[in-house]
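Appendix B, Record 12. Input sequence as logged:
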Amino acid sequence: MREDAPVNLTEKPLLGVLKGDRPAVPPMWLMRQAGRYLPEYRALRADKGGFLELVYDNAAAAEVTLQPLRRFGFDGAILFSDILIVPYAMGQDLWFEAGEGPRLAPILAETDLSALKPDFSRFDAVYETVRQVKAALDPHVTFLGFAGSPWTISTYMVAGQGSKDHGLARRMAYNEPDRFAALIDAIVDATVTYLCGQIEAGVEAVQLFDSWAGSLSPLQFQRWVIEPNKRIVAQLKALHPDIPVIGFPKGAGAKLADYAAQTGVDAVGVDETIDPHWANAALPAGMPVQGNLDPLALIAGGQAVEEAVDLIRAAFADRPHIMNLGHGILPDTPIAHVEALISYVRKEGVSV
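Logged structural output:
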């Protein structure tokens, strides 16, 4: 286990909020901040070729992680990688089809989990990227690692690709609950290994992305979202008790309250569909929140984004809050709008 000197939280505002601070100006980072909306990223991607090749080139992946920090001065750096590194390490082949997204094989709708041969050395390159970023990172910036949550990862592993309704995974969960539970258990174990490796390499907080949590009924949400994430958090806390965990169950709606109360996460991400005033009333008192600016409001810019920021800050005025989007930044987001957002949030006397 990595042992570090105590951190001065006043010098790391984002980490401070995750531990309960309420600064006058909320710290900021944006989901997918290292990516396709930046010309410097597109140039590097074109030079390196495929997405997976970029992830596995340590120097390039570190450079992508740092690019938005240089341009915008965010308070958080998010590791450049992909949630599907976990099934890749669990033994599925992984590749990205141009214009269509990721593919995994063999698909577990047709193949038993026992047929996969795990190779956790596939995590090693990501850990090296963490070390390189850590060595270059401004000491005031909080370094965030991440993994996909088990339900979301399972939807890709079962279908071999993304889908609109995650029907194959949902059918397996209903029709073969024991088989599906074994898959979730394996993903939990691999995820704990992966996140512990990121922490030991240098990240200071981690986020669990459950991008497809909104596709489940309440009972299925309890079983396949809340319970597995609760186990991951408990195991991480046993090994790294001082590392904050952000949970982000996109699309959870009213189920977000149970998620926050039961999983043990230190903070929750709030997507753009949730009323921030409702979230402030429904979530545990004092729990830090992150979000929930609509990515399309950022594309619109101007009055739309300023009104949204004012609403969010008013709703979370008495709660630790990290300004962020309700989901990932979109590729056609104007850079000038990101700059204006940062200026508006950070200016003195902003309306709340």
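The beta strands are 76-78, 93-97, 101-105, 142-148, 205-210, 245-249, 267-270, 289-291, 321-322.
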